[in-house]
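$ fold --in a.seq
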Amino acid sequence: MEHAVEKGVCPRTGAQFFINPDDTMEDVQKHFRLMKEYGIRLVRLFILWDHVEPRPGQWEFERYDAVYELAARQGIQIVSTLTAEDPPGWLEEKIFYHHYADLNRNDLKEAAARYIEKVVSRYWRHPAHYAWILMNEPELLVNQNKETMDQFRTWLAKKYGTIEALNQKWYYSFSDSQEVTVNLPETPEYWQCFPSFTDWHAFLKDNLCGQLAWIQGEIRKIDSVSPTHVNPKGFFGNLAGVGQDYFKEAKVVDILGASIHPAWKFLWFSRPEYGLAYSFCVDLIRSAARGRSFWVTELQAGPTVMTGVCPCTPSPQEITAWLWDAVGAGAKAVIYWMWHPRTFGQEAGEWGLVTANHKVSRRMTASAGVSRLLRENRELFAKAEPEPAQTAVFYNHGTEVLSLIEGSPLYRTQEAPIQALCGVYKALMSAHIPVDFIAEDNIRQGRLENYKAVYFPYSYALDADLQEKLLSYIKGGGSVWADAPFAQKNSEGEILRNSEALYKAFGMDVIEFQGCEAGEDGAKPYLCQADLESVSARIQSRFGDGSPAVLRHTYGKGHTCFVNSAASLGYFQTRLEVFRKQIVSFAEERTDREMEFPSEEACITSRVLRAGEERIIILENWSEREARCVLRGRKKGIGAVRKITEETRLAQEENQVLVTLGPKESAVFVAGLREGLQRNT
């Protein structure tokens, strides 16, 4: 269902602002004047608990009052980050801020409730105030204190009902719920109780969402108007261990966000792939939001030399492309980390769009150019909506959790589920096929029916009820792609004996899944293949030894494709064309876009926004050389074309538009649709 918050709002740019101890009020005023001049319309503040309550019961808001007043005078709106999980030093005896305290603790909750009440009461009616961020980059530090374990035992009682049922599942003999503990060694032991492990990680996700909901509830006691927001981080890593689940967190808030920092998280990608890496994060958050507004809440804005995992400075062209990509995906805001650098501590001198002395970077100038174009075309972008995806990719939380514990401790592959997800995404997006991500609850709610093709990469864990939903979808006319190993276990790591029905939908009978050496040339399977007892599917291709490689099948009204290899992981880890074709060809056959983007250039990414009968086309060239792309209509002709980015080079002929992009150039233009279709030969 469509969410009303920010409906019809034109996308905006914003920036995180910290008040340095040596910043004078004259410094701050000059910064805010520059923000307005360069198109910044949102300013994010951390309202640090230690700053506003430096001693118990002593509340000091002067520095934040001044910022709110400056923002109001410049027509800038404030997005305030609450820090209830980051109590002052006098309460937690921390030597510095940015620590995750345990909000399960009753004493901390009581103090945090007073902090939230003081902050929200002071600012929610202020003319500059816009939204509350419940917690910065929410996550849980693993702990087993009394309050947390009490909540875990209550959670278990709700799931299992009786201690006998729990004992049977966990292979324990607890006499009552108060005895329940869970073994969580830093490195999971080879022999370990899987259900206790998976239950604990399911609880962590619910517990984190419960903490966020509690903060929101405290806000709503006072402020029933302001949107609420969270900004999860990570994306390229296994975050199950800290309770991260974007899809669950989205249900708590009005606006879902994301922290995207190449210097920290883009290590899996080459520089020309930074566009796809960024798009992956944006599409994952957009998909998790499910109709709610979404933002990029933190985007790396400045250089990193001493911080981050690797030195990285976004170029002006990258900033431009990332802004347009977020707009093309439907984001309503992009907020930079950050406006100006801190003058002390870990990030001193880095990450800023401007310097501490107000010198403006070329990145800031590039951002201002995009902001200007958005303002000049605000009515168009305010009503525009992203082109609906016909293809979905399954984000397998069950496999993600199991990968934390399964396998020999010497070669765990904890990142494999996310890398496989990235592999399929990269293949589809490079073929200009828009993608949504779906999770377990989306399937249970019947949302498979929204898509013409659904991908299940590296989905060796697939619960029985999800398999039934999948079978029903295929019988009814849906199309499903999967690779090996597939549907072997449930989300608790138990072998499933009833997967035969699902395998028959793929036209095969599986004896077992077998490990094999990674075939990096496509002549043999990558990491894994199924030993097949019988095959009724059409064998589209074979490996070098004659065994089936790609199998196609019709089942009921639907269609399936099984790749007898870990092709999704193989494509991510090798970038070989054979794996890309095994992924892409199925969606190309099963979906039908109203426009196509034939191009020999793998470096071009595309987005399409719909605004009535007009289409906003966003193309980005991530290479260091000139590239070309052709836009064609499939069902309707291409009518009048007009530029938004003036430097864009277009050549229109009948039903196609040739776009020439310079190195690292982003092109944005509007194409009208008209009845009648003429094909060029």
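$ fold --in b.seq
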Amino acid sequence: MNLIEIEEKKIKLCTALSEAEFSKTRYSSLLGEKGLLAICENASSGSQFSFSDWSFSSIQSDQTEDKVYFTGGLAQTDFTPLFKSQINIKTAELLLTALNQAEKQGLKVPASIGAALLCQKDDKITLLFLPQELFYNCASAFGGQDFISSYLMWENPLLDGRAAQSFTQAVLCYKALTGNFPYPNQNKDERTKDILDKKYLPLEYAVNGIDAKAAGIINRALTITKDSQNTLPKDFSTQILSAFDSAKNAAGQKTVSPEAFTKQKEEYLTSLNAKIERKRKIRRNSTKIIVAAAVFAGLLLLLSGAIKNHAEQPTTQGLSPTQVTECFFQSINEKDVQIMYAVAKGKAFKPYITAATNMHVANAASQAYTFSSINVAPEKWFFYQANEKPGREVSIYGISNLVIDGYKSLLDAKTNKNKDKPTPDTSATGQSIRQDISYYIVQTNGETGEIEVEYASGNVTLTWQKKCWLLTDIDVTVQPLNFSTQELKEDFNSSLKKNNGDVISAAVSLSLRYPWIPSRELLESEEAKLKEGIF
């Protein structure tokens, strides 16, 4: 099984999902997403490309492997996925030229080079950039080295739009000129830290004799920040292409001896690593203080819950298994650790309880110190975003679109209290049942500010213990969803205008593209709470 297979004039992109797993996603809605086909008929007379849309045409299942594929036809059988081949000067030049020409024609330029396929036959060159969102979902689900080399190494997760495209084009230049990726760490989180700290070797220290001006342009593209991404010149893609052209011509002209060049590189890296280590040490120490405060506050929270009057404590007695499961997941959104402890027992739930505890404390602390930072559940975020205020930071933490054995939860179940003396269902004594569940995990990355979403699916086990149902195990797998936070906000603001400021209709209209958006019913319920002053 390969991520990309080319056979019988068909391109097959593996989702890495079985039919059962695929049916629980909305990946089929991406079938019509457009990729970009670039063809140069006479390469020897100049690389002038013509462009057209291309998309996968069908979804097929391989019964032997029990895997679902997106498939599409093209009259070429010798395409090579670029992430499977060595990127050389000529290949990089072709890619940069095609992307530059596409941008000048106002076409949507792909952000990931890893999703490109190349066929060079006689004097004809064909490049195919696969649909980006669809490719990302498949590559991330496929995982392993294919995901790393086809996507992770090419992207800057902190950027979007033209800035993200410029970064990828600069990575292409760097890879072709040096044989290495500028940010080679294969751990996603560590690589993002390296990008934030600009922990890479600038081209002038990587290629002896490279043109300084050309190196400067490529280096600039590799160090774009979220704050500076809107300051890039409109012709930056052309500048990168020109810089690469200058760099490849001058790269072989050594200006200093190999020994002196190596010494310069080592001195630079020593200085850079020391500077970054100091910065990270300060960052770690700050984090330790916050974590210590969070742990202390969390212990106080748990202690206060433990000594509360027994009569006031929540209980699952009198609740159905589905209600118990609902209570657990809605307590994540409400960051109610007391309820989580009341409905779930066992090691499998400790990560959820720890995360909710820390989020509760961090949210309280940030509001206490800044008065402008707040963390909300997914169903609340759209109402805050619609009334965005300068200086206020609204982040997300929680789950959305919970489905329990086919039942679409509105996250409105209520636990009983011991003082209510609910009547238990004694017929269930000793039983244990399993429920299928699926939901989206939505949270804001604390370092990057990007909204990150994962689709979770699997099951929970409930066991009848002492007159009530309790959750005793959970087993889920998660798959990340790829989208741009900036585009989400722009899409939502645009939808707000189209829907005359109706937050619910504006949000729901985007649910096909962003499947984690809560249902209309849940948003309406949340709106009612906000109108009643329940924040």
